[in-house]
Amino acid sequence: MKMTLSRLRYRASLNKLGYEELPNGNTIDTNEKLFDFWFGYYKQSLSQSVSSNAFDYLKDKVTIVVRHNDYFVEALNDTSYTITLPSPNANTYNVASINPDYELNGHDTIVLSATGGSSDDTSNDSSTTKTNNSND
Length: 136
Known about the structure:
The protein has 4 helices and 6 strands. It is α+β, with helices and mostly antiparallel strands. The longest helix is centred in the last third of the chain and has 10 residues, at about 125-135.
């Protein structure tokens, strides 16, 4: 993929999951920064999305372009690696897929998925239904 360096105008960091032991003996997860890197946001055209059947796959994901680094390829198979993007997407992501470019001055296209889940949205719906039925 040919691209100018001026397109890579945002700065993010690649992290690796670590652990810190507290004085009481408990351990907490920490993100240890490995290095900062420059990236650009990548947008697919509608025809590219349709041809790759990517509507469901790319929903709620962020696609970026970076200069090639083998750490990104390794992060695809190791979920202890995370990427932290700056504002407005100041979230932590895992590498969902990567299209590496091993050429000299190559650029990788990386699809990021947010860490954690959002399945807690409907957990309170059943409790409100029970309280409404008990009042009748």
